[in-house]
Amino acid sequence: MINLDAVQKIKKGDIVVVNITRVMRYGAISTIEGHSDIEGFMHISEISSKWIKNIGDYVRKGQRLVAKVLDYDDKKKVATLSLRRVTEDERKKALDLFNNILKSKKILQTAIKKAKSRSKFENIEAKILKDYENLHDFMLDVFDEGIEVAEEEGLPKAVSEVLVELVKKSFKKSRVSIRKLLYVELRAPNGIELIKEVLSKVGKSISVKYLGAPRYLLEAEAEDYKKANKMFNSISPAIKELSKHGIVEISDYED
Questions:
Q1: pTM (2 decimals)?
Q2: 200 and 182 both lie in a single domain
Q3: Cα–Cα distance, 14 to 7 (Å, whole number)
C-alpha cells in the first residue's frame, strides 16, 4: 500500500516517498513524506541489485525517491527501507499520488485564503482525512459531486464554494491504467475451455491480451488508481476459481 499520510501507521510492505538527508559508505538516511517523526534507513545492499562501487552514483542528499518498508521499529521510530525492491509500477503510482496530494493541499489552502476564512488548513485537512485516505481522493469526489461533498466534511460554505470553483479549473479527469501478468497452467483435461470461460468473464471489465501460453496481459483502465484496483478486486473470485485446477499466478506487469 502507498502510505503518504500520517493518519496511517507505517508497516512492513508499505510504499513510501522519501527524501535523502545523509549518504554514508554503507547506506543512506532519509525522512519519510507524511511521517515527519520517522527516520528511514536503507543499507547499501538494498539500494540497487547491482554491485555498487560508489554509493554516490545511486543516491545523493536532497534526492526524492520511492522506497519499500522492509521493517519498522515503533519504539525507535526507524523504518528499514529498500529501493531495489520497488517495481517501476509502484514507483510511478507513488510519485503520481504524491504530486496529486501536494496539488490538492495547495488548492485547499488557496480556497481558504480566497474565501477569507478564519478556518485553519490543518483543522480542515484533519477532518477530511477521517473519511478519506488522502486529500486527492477528496478532491476527486468534489470534482464529481460538487459542493455537497465539501459541506458534508464540515467546510464553511464560503470555502466550499471557492473550492469547487478551483477544483473544476485545476482537475482534468485523466485516465490511468494498471497492468497485471496472469500466468495459468492447468492440469485439467478441459483446461483451455476453463481458461476461455474465466477470461470471458474477466474481459467484461478488464481487457485481456494473449502473450503466448501460459501468459496473459490484463489491463484495467479507470479515472484513478483506486478505481482501477477495484476493477481487479472484482475479478478475484473468477481467478480464485481457476486456481483450483492448477497453477495460477498474478503479478505486476513490466515492459
A1: 0.66
A2: yes
A3: 14
Full domain range(s) for residue 201 = 176-252
CB 119 within 8 A of CB 159: yes
Written as tens digits, the pLDDT of the chain (255 aa) is: 677 766 678 899 999 999 999 999 999 999 999 898 999 999 999 999 999 999 999 999 999 999 999 999 999 999 999 999 999 889 998 999 999 999 999 999 999 999 999 999 999 999 999 999 889 999 999 998 999 999 999 999 999 999 999 999 888 766 788 888 989 888 777 777 878 787 777 766 788 888 887 888 889 888 777 788 888 888 888 888 888 888 888 888 876
Domain with residue 75: its CATH number is 2.40.50.140
CB atoms within 10 A of CB 249: 13
Number of domains into which the chain is organized: 3
Question: Does 182 share its domain with 243?
Answer: yes
Look-up: residue for cell 503518504? 4
